[in-house]
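Before anything else, study the sequence and fold tokens given here and see whether the fold suits the sequence. Record follows:
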Amino acid sequence: MLAALAKPDNEEAASFVATRRGKALRDDWAELADHLGEIVNLLSVPLQL
């Protein structure tokens, strides 16, 4: 947030925050997808009855 406040105008600051926030959300979704993939792999193992 301090980096955004250091920007010379409001539009540039808002763009900076939106870009950073969007990247964080993409990273969160990618991590979630990785975890879901691991769970699917664990559950796809044939059961030994």
